[in-house]
């Protein structure tokens, strides 16, 4: 379970502490909702285990970790000229019929406001989620929610809403001129060796921006490693060494823009951030996070990517499991020399 590492480290550690890593896996085996735990250190998969009937070949539902993938697609679209820039008002990017739904205050909402969950629109998540996904037009429903705060560029707070990410999907579809799954396959999935899988759509046929994407845990590692490598496809992928995202986009995505009132974690462009406490100090952790405990953790200064998947039907609002997974990450950070 612990092969030798492959390339010179950027961290202070001379070797992986396999005894500490084994302790983390022993703790993982005691979590009834956990389905996988994979650790990649210095571009080598050093530990991998599946639980509760999960297997390496079975794709996991990433739930809202899909938002980090949609954010990556926005980065690709900015790089190839499909989108003009994050400060562009969404009124100029949406289909004309959708833009006409916006009043003067909503017309100031920018692409960046959607990316950072600071659009100011009433949330379509948590208690409002069922009504939104039951509506006949998800885009219209999200756009016609009342403004409950000023948009982020005007100092507004974080309002977590899957509808905001779905609006990004609608914008990408219109600007790219192709279904979102095709754009995803072309720009990210196939270059990273990720199999594009069926992805639910809304009543208009727009793929579900911000939820229900599926990857195997190893594929999720490749997605995390893309960010670890600053937007360059990592070793072992079909496009290894080719730039898929600008370094500036990775940096911008990881820059804290707001803070969740629920978790206390910072949020950038579709990515969360916290600090992990290691024996040698604290380490910034950037992570994609999905309902029930789906995580892709990236710890840049330790050259570390960790994927944890969980029962997607478990009740997330019991935070015991989520705290336990973060605790596993902290143990792994120490094992990696943190």
Task: Give a description of the structure.
The protein has helices at 18-28, 66-79, 96-99, 111-115, 129-133, 138-143, 162-176, 180-192, 217-228, 247-254, 320-335; strands at residues 34-41, 44-50, 60-61, 214-215, 258-259, 266-267, 272-278, 281-290, 294-299, 304-310. It has 338 residues and is of the alpha+beta class. Strand 9 (294-299) and strand 10 (304-310) form a beta hairpin. The strands form two sheets. Strands 2-1-10-9-8-7-6-5 form an eight-stranded antiparallel beta sheet, sandwiched between helices. Helix content is 32%, strand content 16%. Helix 2 packs parallel to helix 7 (162-176). It has two domains: 18-63 and 215-335, Beta-lactamase, CATH 3.40.710; 66-176, no CATH class.
Radius of gyration (CA) equals: 19 Å
The spatial strand order of the largest sheet comes to: 2-1-10-9-8-7-6-5
Distance between the termini: 21 Å
Number of helices: 11
Helix-strand pattern: HEEEHHHHHHHEHHEEEEEEH
Q: Output mean pLDDT.
A: 93
* Proportion in β-strands: 15-25%
Shape category: globular
Helicity level: 25-40%
Question: So what's the oligomer here?
Answer: single chain
Number of domains: 2
State the total count of DSSP E strands: 10
CATH class membership of the largest domain = Alpha Beta
- Low-pLDDT segments, ≥5 res: 1-13
SSE-based structural type? alpha+beta
Main beta-sheet strand count, sense and barrel state? 8 strands, antiparallel
